[in-house]
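Thread: "does anyone have the structure for this chain?"

Original post by V.I.:
We have the sequence but no experimental structure in hand. Need at least a predicted one for the grant figures.
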Amino acid sequence: MNPAWLYLLVAIVAEVVATSALTASQGFSRLLPSVIVVTGYAIAFYFLSLTLRSIPVGIAYAVWSGVGVVLISLAALVLFGQRLDLAALLGIGLIVAGVLVINLFSDVSAH
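Reply from O.Q.:
Generated one for you, tokens below.
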């Protein structure tokens, strides 16, 4: 596996953790969740920058946003009880399909 894809995975997970902590930070008025937000985003953008050394920005961002949407939706369900309706689930399914098409069939993602 190309290390850039591992870097992208780390970036996505760090971004999801940071985004999940935003609610708990209550507008950055609570210290620990605020530290998690800032640290998570710093890690996310650092690892995204490493990713961009070998994966084109359009591909990296498509995967980042697609996988991030799916993971943050799951985190919101587990952490906050947020439910998704059929349209939301269908949309997320289309996002997953798009990420799969990019990774399985695009020559650009291989570089």
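V.I.: this helps a lot. The longest helix spans residues 57-80.
O.Q.: and The CA atoms of residues 30 and 76 lie 19 Å apart.
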